[in-house]
Design goal:
Strand content: 15-25%
Largest sheet: 7 strands, mixed
Mean pLDDT: 95
Number of helices: 5
Distance between the termini: 11 Å
Shape: globular
Radius of gyration: 17 Å
Low-confidence stretches: 1-5
Number of strands: 9
Strand order of the largest sheet: 3-2-1-4-5-6-7
């Protein structure tokens, strides 16, 4: 049996909106179901209401807005500088809508979750309800989520794990969104992070091997 690490994995969580993924991770950590420590939450907007969950959990918060930087490279550098200062080892994108340029020091150390089964309904412009609208319009019978490493393209990094949910005849984008989130994302993200915390994830080319 694999032993859990004695030290918790220090992570940063990046948010842009309501922070429901952040809330889920905080709850899993507090329930001793996830061996991570959130050292900092970085929001891309002052309007990101999800910062309330960081405040309630006494987690430091930084607001870094893209509009304050002339280039995306400068913006990305500022984000990762805050991560370095906080001493994090992994960066978790949780409903974060900004494209980041990943520095070499964080290669295969940034992960994201996407509300579809990549490579379906992903890439630039595919986020939130747009993903579920596209899935329903296409007529797919299953959907789900994908946890993946982040590179410098939208939804393009190696896949860590995926979870599947059914698409029902009477689904709307909102009902499908809720099913994907509660029945897939809330399970998949903590599971993937726990595998990383236990040092069981290895990236070889485009493939992720889990021991």
């Amino acid at each position: 049996m694999n032993k859990k690490p004695t030290n918790k994995l220090p992570i940063a969580v990046l948010i842009s909106g309501t922070g429901r993924t952040l809330k889920n991770l905080i709850e899993k950590i507090e329930a001793d179901q996830l061996d991570c420590e959130i050292k900092i939450v970085i929001a891309s907007s002052k309007q990101a209401s999800g910062t309330q969950f960081a405040e309630m959990a006494n987690i430091p918060i930084q607001i870094i807005e893209r509009s304050q930087y002339e280039t995306s490279e400068g913006f990305s550098e500022s984000v990762f500088q805050e991560c370095k200062i906080a001493g994090v080892q992994f960066v978790v994108m949780a409903g974060y809508l900004q494209l980041l340029h990943i520095p070499d020091a964080f290669k295969n150390k940034v992960i994201n979750i996407h509300p579809s089964l990549i490579p379906a309904f992903c890439g630039k412009g595919f986020y939130g309800q747009h993903v579920h609208e596209s899935a329903l319009n296409y007529g797919v019978k299953i959907s789900g989520c994908t946890v993946h490493f982040v590179n410098n393209e939208y939804d393009n990094g190696p896949v860590i794990l995926q979870k599947v949910v059914p698409v029902l005849e009477n689904d709307t984008p909102q009902t499908l969104n809720d099913r994907v989130f509660y029945d897939a994302e809330c399970l998949a993200y903590p599971e993937a992070l726990q595998l990383i915390a236990e040092k069981r994830v290895k990236v070889v080319g485009r493939k992720v091997h889990i021991s």
